[in-house]
UniProtKB/TrEMBL annotation:
Keywords: Oxidoreductase. Residues 13-181 form the Nitroreductase domain. InterPro entries: Nitroreductase, Nitroreductase-like. Pfam families: Nitroreductase (PF00881). This is Nitroreductase family protein. Belongs to the nitroreductase family. The keyword Cytoplasm does not apply.
Amino acid sequence: MTPTLTTDELLTTTRTVRKRLDLERAVPLELVSRCIEIALQAPSGGNAQGWHWLVVTDAAQREAIGDIYRECFARYEASKGFAGNLHADDPARAATQQKVGTSASWLGQHMGEAPVLVIPCLQTGRPLPEGNQAGLWGSLLPAAWSYALAARDRGLGTAWTTVHLMREAEVAEILGLPEGVHQGALLPTAYFTGETFSPAARQPVSEVLHLDRW
């Protein structure tokens, strides 16, 4: 598929896709591979390129990961930090948050049905250090987002989630991950239903931009 979006369109319409993931349509592995190939152009600290990508298409493995995700999501859904509970006292945002919560709950039940699960990982060869890990994950997460952008430009939808990391070790066992390889996200990938996506409502730049000082 030839990319057709402008840069601005791509950056403003790459949405988290949940209910609009087409769970019935197969996704060609070569298309996912091309998106990862593009993602590998992202920066990494010291040009270390310590990333690895688990692309899960096997039905039994997807189901097993989906079962873990469903159970982890139930814990998240019951927490104060659940997306559907945020900004409840702000009428301008409460309805949107409830919509996000409903959508997230749907994905919580259907994660294992997505035709492709992509799990970007970072190989450190050791346990994660204590304290500030921003530099460490900064060598993986830009590439993971580049994957989502490349997928969007090729008619695929993704959803960035980390809920499964409550039980990361169990997912690692399913995938046969060696010690010292750490999962950064879970990206269900599928063709999306409907026509396209629009930019989302966001805070004005004037409310979040700080010049020189807070």
